[in-house]
Amino acid sequence: MSSPLFEKRAKGPWLGLNTNFPDPSFMKAADNRWYAFGTNGNGKRVQVAVSDDFKTWTLLDIDALPTLSTWETENDHWAPDVVMRDDGKYVMYYSGEAKSNLRHHCVGTAIADNPTGPYVPSNTPLSCRLDQGGSIDPSGFKDKDGTRYVVFKVDGNSIGHGGDCNNGLEPLVSTPILLQKVGADGITPIGDAIQILDRNTADGDGPLVEAPNLIIRGDVYFLFYSTHCFTDPAYDVRYATAESITGPYTKNNVPMINAQNTGLLSPGED
């Protein structure tokens, strides 16, 4: 099954924040304001911006993750994503560099009373899979029945054999997207993670798929992801659809966001 997500009626991208703010995620908090969270930069591990209308954004002088867990280093806190729990607390998912295997990452979790933090990290990461390259790019999702999940990428290309994003030379390695069910607290895993997507050259994918994000519209699950390499002008955003959250997911192989339809260079990540 492949389904069109929407009619493209927007006039195109606009500049919301003129600063280095990579891998942004967005959420609307209990105060009815929008918050964006970005990869480390501007002297912060996790950057935060706020908006009242989703158009004009203000970068806050706040590090949302001021303290670290014992498993992670000071470096490379990537792709944070925040969800609000039913009890009103906020859970942050992020990628942190593992002390036990430098340059490879685990998915960490942290909890705060307010959307801007301070977020207090959990003692144990949600996923590491360091022997497979690590775990990165987490994103939280709450299904219609209230069940919570986290999707993330296994960073296989970090142990690839060179070339584009370290996975352009044979033998190519897998960079699967996994789905992990979690408890109502948003941090306790329930069962094992399952694979719901992977790179496939025949589908037009580049050396990886990454940056997964799930939504549901009606009874259809939409899994957004990026493919190609962030250093490649072809880096783009695509999506796949399924009738069940666990899949099977069918890719819509026409890019949803790319350089041609936005005028932006390498507009991947979502």
UniProtKB/TrEMBL annotation:
InterPro entries membership: Glyco_hydro_43, Glyco_hydro_beta-prop_sf, Glycosyl_Hydrlase_43
Organism annotation: Penicillium digitatum (Green mold)
Hydrolase listed as a keyword: yes
Active site: D23 (proton acceptor), E210 (proton donor)
Biological classification of the source: Eukaryota, Fungi, Dikarya, Ascomycota, Pezizomycotina
Gene Ontology MF terms: hydrolase activity, hydrolyzing O-glycosyl compounds
Ranges in a coiled coil: none
Record-given protein name: Endo-arabinase, putative
Single Gene Ontology BP annotation: carbohydrate metabolic process
Positions bearing the site annotation: Important for catalytic activity, responsible for pKa modulation of the active site Glu and correct orientation of both the proton donor and substrate: D137
Swiss-Prot/TrEMBL keywords: Glycosidase, Hydrolase, Signal
Domain of life according to the entry: Eukaryota
Family: Belongs to the glycosyl hydrolase 43 family.
